[in-house]
Amino acid sequence: MSLSEWLVDKRKLLLSNKIKQSLNSQSRNLWIKCNHCGLLMYYKVLEDNLKVCPKCFYHFPASSQDRINYICDINSWQSCDLHLSSTDPLGFADRKVYSERLIDMKAKTYLSDAVQTGIASINCISVACGIMDFRFMGGSMGSVVGEKLTRLIEKATYLKLPLIIVCASGGARMQEGMLSLMQMAKISSALYRHSEASLPYFTVLTSPTTGGVTASFAMLGDLIIAEPNALIAFAGRRVIEQTIKEDLPDNFQTSEYLFKHGFIDLIISRTSLRSQLSRLLELYR
């Protein structure tokens, strides 16, 4: 075999391998396996069921845009404060400089930060909505998340609108230190003024909702709603066990456990959340 023939065969082999890899990748994206029951389903089946397993009702993670589509009327979403974006006030660096991490997150998620805020409607009822996105640095609450939510609450109070915040967060953003912890008080103060205006506020806790978000606005709703089997906590399980020197129940920090002990009001599946929110909003009109 001549060198030219060998090169041609080599190129054909490489091209064939690339095609196979591409087909395998597409196949993996088309079929999704449930982590809980093992059901293998076509991706459109999962999408049509709002990313809830049709067999065991496991709730797959959903982006903020997904939740906007699931909850709000079509084309009703009007974004607020899209231009707000975090900076690096402390010059924080761990394995990566915080400013670089922000750039990476923006490129990966197409979001400016870990929450989307806007005015929308649910079955023609106008509402102010804040929807957190766990994909952006674990949904952590930094100064921009706090500012966007505070502005949203103040706008809802001014326009006399009900308020809904969908929580998905690992807590306060450590890269912003005390500036992130300050957001807990700032958001809570705005919520107090919203309550004084006799306007309703609902929170929807998704998995996970933890840390400073749980310790502030997530638990201040007039109605606190959670998705099934959502992880809802302040401190981590191991931290609590080591502090109290006791083993905790297996279902500790789940929405079902919290509902049983009176910390949340309702557990509603994602597939029926829109209709239930509509009914609840009607009661408060």
UniProtKB/TrEMBL annotation:
Residues 30-285 form the CoA carboxyltransferase N-terminal domain. It catalyses: N(6)-carboxybiotinyl-L-lysyl-[protein] + acetyl-CoA = N(6)-biotinyl-L-lysyl-[protein] + malonyl-CoA. Its EC number is 2.1.3.15. A zinc finger (C4-type) spans 34-56. Zn(2+) binds at residues 34, 37, 53, 56. Transmembrane segments: none annotated. It is found in: Cytoplasm; Plastid, Chloroplast stroma. Acetyl-CoA carboxylase is a heterohexamer composed of biotin carboxyl carrier protein, biotin carboxylase and 2 subunits each of ACCase subunit alpha and ACCase plastid-coded subunit beta (accD). Acetyl-CoA carboxylase is a heterohexamer composed of biotin carboxyl carrier protein, biotin carboxylase and two subunits each of ACCase subunit alpha and ACCase plastid-coded subunit beta (accD). PANTHER family: ACETYL-COENZYME A CARBOXYLASE CARBOXYL TRANSFERASE SUBUNIT BETA, CHLOROPLASTIC. Belongs to the AccD/PCCB family. This is Acetyl-coenzyme A carboxylase carboxyl transferase subunit beta, chloroplastic. It comes from Osmundaria fimbriata (Red alga).
